[in-house]
Specification:
about 220 residues, mainly alpha, 7 helices, about 0% strand
Length: about 220
């Protein structure tokens, strides 16, 4: 009798083979593996949302919470019902309010996180390396501080695309801004190259792991049967 562990191993083996069939072209077998992966991910996400978000944060407060808690929970309930109206062409306008709320809150969180968690923290780290205490530690600290500072400033200037156009002027940036933007372009290229190298290394690691899984599964099945 085949055990459940062996069945799951064979299923993973089959899906892995289906994914590798993409090497010979985009066909039904690869799309079947993609559909299975997307369906499994979607099902897992739905179950997680129901058990971790909807039930404890919406259903339980409405059924078991205090009157004040029920009143507060009614707000996301109404917004969720309005969001479902987007499924109907006639009622789709009712979903504008929750969509605007989601987009606004999402943008605020992303911008706030980028400014407070990345820009300010990176600038503070760069300035800390330029202090006299850091200078006492030697040249490497000062060099790192200046490198971080120049990289952060020049990268910000690279994304500055507005100019003040006057009569007879072509609207080009000044020479200093142009030099800083070119330096920023170098830092951006190095960053993208490092990210690409990291993704490539992770992909190669995943490929080696899958090939090792296929080899191990084949030998395991041959030894058992």
């Amino acid at each position: 009798m085949i055990s459940n562990d062996l069945l799951w191993t064979l299923a993973a083996f089959l899906i892995t083979i289906l994914v590798f069939t993409y090497l010979i072209g985009d066909h039904f077998l690869f799309r079947l593996a993609s559909y299975i992966s997307i369906g499994a991910a979607a099902g897992t996400t739905v179950v997680f949302i129901i058990h971790q978000v909807i039930v404890p944060r919406l259903v339980d407060p409405l059924l078991l919470g205090a009157p004040a808690q029920k009143a507060v929970t009614a707000v996301p309930l109404v917004l969720s019902l309005l969001l479902l109206a987007r499924l109907s062409p006639r009622l789709s306008r009712l979903g504008v309010l929750p969509m605007a709320f989601l987009v606004g809150v999402g943008a605020a969180v992303l911008i706030g996180g980028a400014v407070m968690g990345t820009l300010f923290q990176q600038s503070r780290a760069a300035l800390n390396d330029l202090t006299p205490q850091a200078a006492a530690l030697g040249a490497p600290g000062m060099f790192t501080g200046w490198l971080l500072f120049i990289g952060a400033v020049s990268t910000l200037f690279y994304f500055q695309f507005t100019t003040r156009k006057t009569e007879g002027d072509t609207g080009k940036r000044s020479v200093i801004l142009e030099i800083l933007s070119q330096i920023g372009k170098v830092f951006i290229a190095v960053t993208l190259g490092a990210i690409f190298a990291g993704i490539l290394a992770a992909s190669i690691t995943a490929l080696v792991e899958r090939l090792e899984f296929l080899r191990t599964t084949v030998f395991l099945f041959m030894n058992k049967y």
